[in-house]
Amino acid sequence: MYSNERISMILFKWQKCGGTFGWNKLLKIVIFLVGLGTLISCETLVNTIPADKLPQTESQLTLFGFISPQDTVIRIKVGQTRPVFGEPTSGSTDFFVMEGDTLVWVGDALPTASVTISDGQATATLPFQASERLYAIPVSQFPIQAGKTYTLTVTDGTRTAQATCTIPLRQVAVKNYSLDTVITSSFGNRDSTLTLNFTWDDLRGQEDYYRIRAYELFEYSVVRVDTNELFLVESRRSATSYFNWTGTDSRSVFQSDANLDGTTFSSPQGRKKLENPTMYSNLGGSAVKPQRGPESKGIFIQLLHTDVHYYQYHRSVQRSRGDNPFMEPSLVYTNVVGGLGVFAGYNRSVTTIKP
Question: Is 31 helix (H, G, I), strand (E, B) or coil?
């Protein structure tokens, strides 16, 4: 590598020669020499770590499930982790959380495991459902009851993972709500937006955790062209549209009554666009507006009274997905012994706002 003394010597010789070849040419030479020296000095930093020096990791079972007395089916996702070091294998164990509860896997599940759920007295085996790539059983065959503790056990013959959760005893009802319509403008376009806020009273004398959700159920028209008769056919369909929530950590989608026992809680503001008619094209290519526009069938506010595992898991997922690139990595919460994932429960109340 060229030292500062060496570069100074080059400059001295250039000055002694009268600087006949110009500053620009000299600067290019100096930059080239410095870059070359840097590459040579960094070459020794690249080393190959032998395989026997890498941390030895093994694949672990993973299980994910949320149970509630209000559900009609118990669904459990079972998979396995992939070691960080070593050759990659086919498939993936990546997942994302849809609406907070439904975990959708990108890769394959583990269809050969044995999955059982027990309340301490009765035990049921969950069969694998190939169409959904998960283990499921109707609650009519194994009811989930408020106040009871449930244990989920997963084994593949050589590995066993187990988790326990307790369903909160009481439902918590919405106390008050406010539903408004506001006009928003974006890039010259005007839209109508529904805003929703609501409150509830915390249960006194115990640790409580909450999660909020709300959605609108509506009907809308679909227009298609009957190519045989050459006329438009309009039909009705149903759909749901969920509210998006804005707020701070003190009023988030997931809330705890730590240091707030017995107080009144407030939701962050929920927002969703008012449903507008969808435009379709007819045989001539021009836009066709359905004769009937969207029709709201009601807005449904769901307040989930959850156990601590549900709350801790979802909050840890939020922290691990932060947008700050300088934030230190954080572990995702798990209550699974012998594996990873979460098994949690909640007791849900629903408040309906009729149109």
Answer: helix
